[in-house]
Structure formats: C-alpha cells, structure tokens
Specification:
This protein has helices at 46-56, 126-135, 146-149, 153-161, 181-199, 215-224, 237-240, 243-251, 268-282, and strands at 2-11, 20-29, 69-72, 76-81, 84-90, 115-119, 141-144, 165-168, 205-206, 227-228, 233-234, 260-264. By secondary structure, it is α/β, with parallel strands linked by helices. A five-stranded parallel beta sheet has the order 8-7-6-12-11. A three-stranded antiparallel beta sheet has the order 3-4-5, with no helix packed on it.
C-alpha cells in the first residue's frame, strides 16, 4: 500500500576536499497517490513514544529534524539524520504507535480460514490483543462478560471500530444449564444491552461459559435471535498459563481450516501467545 523511495545525492564543492551527501526520502500512499508526511502515520501519542525510543537508542530525541527523512521498509521504520541512516525500528517495537495505510481487506472463501475467539473479557490484556489484530489486519470474536464491559468501554469501542465481532458470554459468567429460562434470557439480554450502550455494537452469538448447553439454553437463545458458538480447539490457556504451550496447542493441529480456537483475553500469557499465533497462521 505504501511506496517508499530514498534518494542520495553527492555534491562536490570547490572549497571542500570531500563531497557532501544529501539524503531525501519519499513515501506515498499507492492507492491515493498522496505523498505522506510523518504525522500521517502517527496514532495519538505516537510521536512522543517514538522520540522516547530514539532517546533509549542514544539519539538526540529533541532534534527538530528527527522525522524529516524517514522510510517505511519491509522490516520497520528507518530514520535518516545528517545524510546517513541513523536507526531502524521494527514494526513490533512500534506497535500501537503507527497507523499505516493498509490495502482493502478481501476474503477469499476458497482459502483456508480459522476463527480466533477470546472469552471472559474485556480486560487489561484486550488492548494488546487488539494491537496485534490491527497490526496483522485480522479480525477476531470477543465473547464478553457483560458486567465487565462498562469498566473497559473504550477498549470495547475500539474492538468494534476495528471490525471485530462481539459475542455474549453471559452477564456474570453464569452456568446457563442450572438456570431457569427467564434467568438465561436475562444473562443474555443484559450483556447485549451493555455492548450496545458502551461499545456501540450489536451481538449475534452466545458462547455459554464452560460450553454448558442443553435444549433449554438452545431454545432461549434461539427465541432471542442468537446463535450458539462453542469451539473446536481448546488451547487450555486458562490451565497452562504458558505462552509456548498455548501456541503449541494451535500449531499441533493438522487441519486448521474451519476450526474455532478458544482463548481467554484475561491472561497475559494468552496475549503473548497471540503474538506468535497470528503471523504463524497467516504464513
């Protein structure tokens, strides 16, 4: 989507024994043809964060020309100072700082597909997972616990704005099979109302906590207009709390096409594992 060009000129001066070099960079949005300036790439707070990265790397982060010549590469963001390459930061280092133009997203039904789902949030880890989804242009489904949504309203709104699906995981992580029909209905509708109020989204699916489902649960959910969704790959992230084991639980499945992966956004280790899972699945 972005075309980047670096040009270097060598200038000879009669009063200088050595030629002087001048470097200029150009970055353009391929779709619109617009030349990009550095602020076009930045999210809120992005410049401050990148200047801090520069300071940590030993550069003078207060320089007014710090972002005059920059280049997007396959690996990350490269900065040029005084005619020479000064530093390059990887996209992983810049996560959450850049808003790089991306090509339109298309779905090819003939290609393998897999669904990533995250239960029990929103939580303090959901933003990290959203950063990863945005970076790799991926969508996921978040089955949220209703009474948590208001506490993470900004996170829930962002999930919706990025095109992710919000599903219902009951109001208080209740086991639906031990409840009366009216109680089941309340657990579902209260959560849907919270998602609408605080995230500005609507829900289409319910995931019963623990996968506990019977004919009564199916009937109530159906009457309310919701589908029920469980999973086909249980990463057991809640049990192992180990990023390597969570990644392995996905990686070891022979045929992933059409599978639904169960994870929980409340665990640090799950967010860490997602950093490995997404690029591996895309590859």
């Amino acid at each position: 989507r972005v075309v980047s060009l670096v040009a270097t000129a060598s200038m000879n001066h009669s009063h200088s024994a050595l030629p002087a070099t001048k470097t200029a960079t150009f970055n353009a949005d391929r779709e619109t043809g617009k030349l990009l300036v550095f602020k076009d790439l930045l999210k809120d707070g992005g410049e401050t964060a990148i200047r801090q990265l520069c300071a940590d790397a030993g550069l003078d982060s207060t320089r007014t020309d710090l972002f005059d010549n920059w280049l997007l590469t396959a690996a990350g963001l490269r900065l040029y100072l005084d005619g020479e390459q000064a530093i390059e930061f990887t996209y992983a280092q810049l996560r959450g700082m850049l808003a790089i133009p991306k090509p339109p997203r298309t779905i090819d039904p003939s290609k393998p597909m897999i669904a990533l789902t995250f239960d029990d949030g929103p939580s303090q880890n959901t933003s990290h997972i959203l950063d990863l989804l945005e970076e790799y242009d991926v969508r996921a489904t978040f089955f949220v616990v209703g009474n948590r949504v208001s506490s993470y309203a900004d996170t829930a709104k962002r999930a919706v704005a990025l095109g992710n699906e919000i599903g219902i995981h009951t109001w208080e992580h209740a086991k639906l099979t031990v409840l009366q029909p009216e109680e089941i209905a309340s657990q579902i509708t209260r959560t849907a109302d919270a998602v609408k109020e605080y995230a500005g989204g609507t829900c289409a699916a319910v995931r019963p906590p623990g996968g506990a489902c019977d004919d009564t649960v199916k009937q109530v959910a159906g009457q309310l207009g919701y589908i029920l969704v469980n999973w086909s790959i249980d990463t057991l992230d809640w049990k192992t709390r180990n990023a390597k084991k969570i990644f392995k639980s996905v990686k070891s499945v022979k045929n992933l096409d059409g599978k639904i992966v169960l994870m929980h956004s409340i665990h640090d280790e799950t967010a860490e594992a997602t950093e490995k899972i997404i690029p591996w699945l895309q590859k």
